[in-house]
Design a protein that fits this description.
The complex is a heterodimer.
Chain A lengths: L21 H15 L19 E9 L5 E2 L2 E2 H14 L4 E12 L4 H17 L3 E10 L7 E11 L15 E4 L5 H11 L15 H10 L5 E3 L5 H13 L2 E5 L7 H10 L13 E4 L1 H12 L8 E7 L6 E4 L5 E3 L13
Helix pairs in contact in A: 1-3, 2-3
Chain B lengths: L12 H12 L6 E7 H9 L10 E8 L7 H11 L4 E5 L13 H6 L4 E3 L3 H10 L4 E6 L6 H14 L4 E5 L5 H9 L7 E5 H7 L2 H10 L3 E4 L3 H16 L5 E3 L11 H10 E8 L3 E10 L8 H4 L15 H5 L23 H4 L4 H8 L6
Parallel strand pairs in B: 1-2, 1-7, 3-4, 3-5, 5-6, 7-8, 8-9
Antiparallel strand pairs in B: 10-11
The chains are: A alpha+beta, B alpha/beta.
Amino acid sequence: MNGLGANPATGRITLAHGSGGSAMHGLIRELFHKYFSNDILNKGDDAARLETHEGRLAFTTDSYVVSPLFFKGGNIGKLAVCGTVNDLSCLGARPLYLSCGFIIEEGFFLNELEEIVRTMAGTAAECGVKIVTGDTKVVQKGAADGIFINTSGIGVIPDNVDVSGHYALPGDKVIITGTVGEHGCAVMLGRENLGMESPVESDCAPLWEMVQKLFDRTGLVHVMRDPTRGGLATTLNEIAEQSGVCIKLYEEAIPVRDEVRGVCGLLGLDPLYIANEGKMIIIAPEHYASDVVKILNGHKYGKAACIIGEVLEEPEGRVFMHTFAGGTRILDMLSGEQLPRIC
Amino acid sequence: MNNSNYIDEFHNSGAASAIVAALGRYDGRKLNIMEVCGTHTMSIFRHGIRELLPESVNLISGPGCPVCVTPVSFMDLAVLLAREKDVIIATFGDLLRVPGSLTSLAEEKADGADIRIVYSPLDALKTARGNPEKRVVFLSVGFETTTPVIALAVLKAYEENLPNFSILAANKTMPEALKILAADSGSRIDGFLYPGHVSAVTGTQFYRELAEAYRVPGVVAGFEPLDILHGIYTLTRLCSEDGNSVVNEYSRVVREQGNPIALEKMKEVFEPCSAIWRGLGKIEGSGLGVREKYGRFDARRVFGLVETAGKEPKGCICGEVLKGKATPDKCGLFGKTCTPESPAGACMVSSEGTCAAYFRYNKGVII
């Protein structure tokens, strides 16, 4: 990569890349603009000039500090685009524009940065979203864990769409768009170097294209939320509390891959509390629920979608589960971090 | 052998209903069954098994959670070591948030102490090899399931002549504690659900001796819901009969003679000694100390440590809970000043502690 001002011997980021001078401009031109290229970004102004759109705006932000940076099924860049796109999708908003801020540790390898940026560009293209503005900072060695990324996103909510965590009603069905527990497992296996061989991959994926099909038809879905940190159980607790309802799940109905069960069984973890990055919880009225599942099943990211429970009136704010054995288990919010057992 | 993965079969809800129905037909005397193992406690709550049992069958949680029975004084020693500048503490995750007299390892970590979570004691060896200028201390806690691998780590360190590795041992064995529980007339235990994985190492001979001596039957059970339900069902039958039978229902993992190789490694490195069990007090012959031959891997010797009696939190009834004489909801601190986020006692923070299980899965709410 010429003109990047990088140390030619090692191809690493230096403090010069964040100083505002020619090295930084070289990096922006040869890396970010090259991969993220679009008419708005290419203008090179301090802010992005955006066209107005019909409908209400949705706006969200997220920072990504995952370790390791590269894991089975993705990398921090893919996460940074999917996470923000999916947050917009949860509101039924068509994702339009992303901003992207990088904080890079001095000494970071340029070829790894390029891989991350390339992945971000590919993922953005998959969901038709443009990265229109950004920022780059470089900090001294030790002041960041390799690279931190922040993305903010703007989307537009069509008129016939109104979803919120407050809208779950007794009688509604609870749907998950696929198998749970994969992303957190993949990251933990990658980070901890457990000497375990496992086919578990992160499920990281942009979901707008899939959920948009729900609104194409009738827009009757009540709640959509992606069960990221804290997992399915924690996210359902948030919804139960917001909507003032009770949620009942059926353990037999919750789809979990065998390899995830295996890893969790070995480490003493619970798949219901592990992060997902390519799944959506959808709460829909009873009469519409099977149609929702059918629509989701027709998309590559929703093949394992199914109904896993229902909304009850009380006890308010509680989530519980009917177990395999026929008993009842209360699913509380995750407290602290899941720690693997001693024996 | 067809496509059996030994998991799905034991999660079969049809079979579970059949066993629950059979249990429902129990019409004998009231029974107190003690499940000794922390993993059983968790599994019972996780699958909602308690509510499936008839009124006359009462499940008591016993002291089989190695973290819960580790005395406060041990955590204080761990904290002392963690504060040494050249020491790296390697520990199982469970111990991180257990409160000592004044502080916990998690708080020390936030303060800058080098404390690393490991999944296996062999990882602690790796840390020692990779950090020759530091002294690595592995917090050695566990029953017979875990102790053999810890022994293996010490043997490897001995082979390699590793100068900077040691273990702070608080390992325990079950037999002496079980004797005390069986003999205690205050808590009338009619039968034991024995720990599947401990038994895989120890074998079942001791349970049969206990059953003979104290006429308390037992079932060795695995951890899937069907294992536990069927184990309890079998116990109701055994309790109505002679009263000195032991049945191994975890035969897919447990052999009558246990695992001789694991036992041999344990005996090579450790010797029996007295041990303090939180809540049960001192029990002779229930602890494991590092033998003289491996003395340079014993952190107590290496650092010249003297154990002082730790301060138990006021109002904490972990001891009564561990003996099965009280349930967590009877504790004045439960759910108020003692929660998983801010635990007062070890029974709350350990992933297998009875109080943690009650809180996480039950919170006293009846659905």
